Each structure stands twice: as structure tokens, then as C-alpha cells.
Amino acid sequence: MKIIKTTASNFDEEFENILSRAKTDIKEVSAIVTGIIDEIVQSGNEALKSHIQKFDKWEVKSDEELMISQEDMKKAYDNIDENLKKALHTAYDRIKKYHEKQLPKSWVDFEKNGTILGQKVTPVDKAGLYIPGGKAAYPSSLLMNAIPAIVAGVEEIVVCTPTPNNEVNELLLAACHICNVSKAFKVGGASAIAAMAYGTKTIPKVDVITGPGNIFVATAKKLVFGEVNIDMIAGPSEIGVLSDSSAKPKYLAIDLLSQAEHDEMASSIMITVDENIANETSVEVENYLKNLSREKIARKSIEDRGAIIVAKDMEEAIKLMNEIAPEHLEVMTSNPFELLPKIKHAGAIFLGENTPEPIGDYIAGPNHTLPTGSTAKFYSPLNVENFLKKSSIINFSKNAIDELGEACAILADTEGLTAHAKSVRVRLESK
User: Fold this and answer.
1) Does 23 have pLDDT greater than 80?
2) Could you say which of 2.40.160.10, 3.40.50.1820, 3.40.50.1980, 3.30.465.10 is the CATH number of the domain covering 27-230?
3) Which of 46, 74, 107, 130, CA to CA, is 20 to 30 A from 84?
4) Where's the active site on this chain (predicted)?
């Protein structure tokens, strides 16, 4: 694994490469995705069937074949191993409990002059969840996307997932059953995003689309934003690790690989203040790689997009990591809570050697749909508020408009909006 010292003459160049990890030329992709979206808008289900045959390699003979029945979900749930069933329920309960703490409340405030101001929090009517299913299926992503919508009170949850060769992952179906998903469809990629954004004869138009996906899915979400709301535009998985001399190289190495095995484009970056730890971790990465089931993918990721940076001190290490703003950040130091106030930008922060990133992926409770490619500087993890909207509440009494109305009218006059000003003054003149 590549080791870089901040004192090296070419460090700035190497670090810039790390910061540009998420930059992709999407011009060609955008053109392709725009074409896909246009076909869905114009031809609906017929375009979906054509895209499925082209990309997922199976022929859809009827509209009904696009749908996944609740009976199939229940059958899959009944047939899974009892320990696996228990694990899914444990994850469900913990994720639900965490997200219930995020629920904002409607409120009203009463002023002395009779003004009532407030905010009404309301769930969207329909939420569309995109769940990946290409190189691997992710039932955990179904839980992480569906549960916040459930907690928010969304009435209808629509799921789309690709099904190569018309094969649906049984564990994903079981997760759908646990979440009481009423509508699920065997549609993936940009086609699914377009179908949920605009609606077809079979797939309903939704209000918000959430969930991770490849560059085509991310680009489609970007292009339909405005027609619907979206959670974020996420890229390949990534992990950042801060470590000092107390960290165990075996832990560090396997945690870096926990993201590398996702995707050849995944990024695994460690910053340490101990050169010996850097060298030992690099050796351990190679030792682990030989025995991974997804060795080829993980090796490509580590070789192309992995790095260990040796910083002069922890202050420099934290500064660099804040610039990287990783999706997942592990703090593997002797006193991780001491560093927490200095960490500004990360999708999720994992503190201490007993908190590996996979704990957050499955069972801890916080959401694993996280901002990538430094967007943690301005995006938050998927949460309940992604499925809510807020309406302002305003009620003026006669005393209130008498007190504040002329100031309002003057501002309207200044902007040249005569009807605005008159709308207020006609009330001021009324006895």
C-alpha cells in the first residue's frame, strides 16, 4: 500500500490526487442518462422493458412481471435462517430507535400583540428508494432507507432494485417484508430513477428519491432533482482512518479493506503520526488481501485509490482529514473522544478500536447512506428529515397588523410592488 510522508517534496501533488478522488468526467455519462430519462418519459413501461432486456439480460413479457409481490417477500422471510432473521430484526429495531430521536416537532409561538407564528412538519406522500443490486445486493441499504421513511410517517414507500437475469436477492425480499414495503419493482439503474421521478403506468411518481448507486444512478438523481427531491449524490465508498502509535496494524489494515472490497473505485486513506504503524499496516493489508473473497476488487482499489499518509503530528493529521472529509472516519487513537471536537467533516465518525466501520453499516443504528467525495463538508447522512417537509404558520391579529403593517407596506413600496403595499394598507384603513 502506498505510503506518503507530508514532508516529501511531491506531497502536495499526491494529496491533490486524493482530494480529486471523486472527480469523474460525467459528460458522456450525462448524455447517456439524459437519453434514458427521455425514453422513460416518452414510452414509460415499454422503455423500462427494453432497458431491462439490455442491461439486466431478461425479457419482461408483461407489466405485472416488473412487480415484486408481497407474497414473495413473505415467502423469502419465512425461508431465511432463524439467526439471520434475528439479526435483521435486531438491526431494524436499533435503526428505528436511533432515527426516532431525529424527529423534529411542529411548533407555535404566541406574541403579546396576538401574532401566532409556527412551523408544521409533514411527511411526503410517496418516497422512492433505490437499492443497488448489481455486483452485490444490499438488504442493509433497504433497512437504512426504508426505516427513516417509516419513522417520518410516509404513506407509500416504493422500492426499485435491479435484478440481473430476473433473480431477486432473497434477503432483500425478507428485509422488504420486515419494513412492510407495499410496492417494489425489478427495475434498476438510471431507468429506475426516471420511472420514480416521472411515473409510468406501473411505477408511481414519488416525491423524494433516496439510496446509493453507480455513476449512472447518481447522474440520474442529479438530473431529476427539482422534479423530485433527492437525498444526495453519492459516489464510491470510502474510509478515512486517523491513528497514533497505540493503534493495532491488524485492525487498521482490515478496516481499510472493508471499504476497498466494495468497489474498484472505493478509497481507503489512513493518516498516522507513527511511521512504524504505517509500514506495519501496509504489510498487514497485503497479508489480508490474499484471503479475501473479493481480492481482485479490493486489490485494484488499494493500488489505485488507497494511501497511508505519515503526518508530523496529530494536528496536521486532523487538518488533512478534514480536507478529505471522508464518508466514514475511524479514530483509532488512545483517546479518540479528545479529538472529536477538532473533527469537522465526516459522514460518520467511529471512535475507538472496538468500533469498526462495518458496525455502522449494519447494526449500530445511525444511517449508512452517507456523503462521499468530500461532500460531507455540506451534506449530512440520510435521516428522517429527508422524508419530511416544513410549512410556516402565520396568523396576525388586528392589533398585530396595526402595529407592523405600515413597516411591511413601506418595504413593498420600496420594491415597487403597489398591490403588495395596498393589500396591507386596506386593512390598516379598515375600522
Assistant:
1) no
2) 3.40.50.1980
3) 130
4) 327-328
Q: Which residues are catalytic?
A: 327-328
According to DSSP, the residues that pair with 121 across neighbouring strands are 390
Interhelix angle 27-43/189-198, rounded to 10 degrees, is: 50
Please provide residue 258's backbone torsions phi and psi, each rounded to the nearest 5 degrees.
Answer: -60, -25
3-state secondary structure of 7: coil
**Residue-level pLDDT at 163:** 93
Angle between helices 189-198 and 215-224 (to 10 degrees): 20
Average pLDDT, the chain: 95
CATH class for the region spanning 3-22+235-364: alpha beta
Which residues contribute to the annotated binding site? 237, 259, 262, 328, 361, 415, 420
> Residue 247: what residue type?
A
> Which pTM was predicted?
0.93
Cα 202 to the center of its chain, rounded Å: 26
Please calculate the CA angle 201-206-212 and round it to the nearest 5 degrees: 110
Binding-site members for substrate are: 237, 259, 262, 328, 361, 415, 420
pLDDT in tens, 114-138: 999 999 999 999 999 999 985 567 8
Q: Is 388 exposed, middle or buried (0-12, 13-18, 19+ CB in 10 A)?
A: buried
Partner residues linked to 280 by β-bridges:
none
User: What SS3 state is found at 356?
Assistant: coil
- CA–CA distance from 296 to each of 225, 292, 301, 308 (Å)? 35, 9, 9, 20
Rounded Cα gap, residues 237 and 251, in angstroms: 19
- For residue 29, CA distances in Å to 1, 2, 215, 357 come to 31, 30, 8, 31
The grid cell for 145 is: 432507507
Q: Cite the annotated binding site for Zn(2+) by residue number.
A: 259, 262, 361, 420
- Domain residue ranges of the chain, discontinuous segments joined by +: 3-22+235-364, 27-230, 396-428
